[in-house]
Design brief:
The chain has about 70 residues and is mostly helical. The chain is built from two helices and no strands. The chain has helices at about 1-5, 10-74. The longest helix is centred in the middle third of the chain and has 64 residues, at about 10-74. The radius of gyration is 32 Å and the shape is rod-shaped.
Length: about 70
């Protein structure tokens, strides 16, 4: 009888099922985190491009002002 009990242990089967469910859940969370990280990287890139664009506009306007001053003053 002991041999039959070892092959069918409902507690063992339940634990294995819970472990499989947890593994699937962790896999899903992992995939979501990877997608979130990719979105954050893209957002960061866009942010830096915006910052560089604003700096370029400010520098362009400063240069135009300097050119205008030197043209009028000279």
């Amino acid at each position: 009888m002991d041999g039959g009990r070892e092959s069918f242990d409902p507690h063992h089967l339940r634990i294995e099922a819970q472990e499989r469910v947890m593994a699937l859940q962790f896999g899903a969370v992992d995939k979501r985190l990877e997608r979130i990280e990719a979105l954050i990287e893209r957002l960061e890139r866009r942010l830096w491009m915006t910052v560089y664009g604003v700096v370029a506009v400010i520098l362009t306007q400063a240069m135009q002002s300097l050119i205008g001053l030197s043209a009028n003053g000279g």
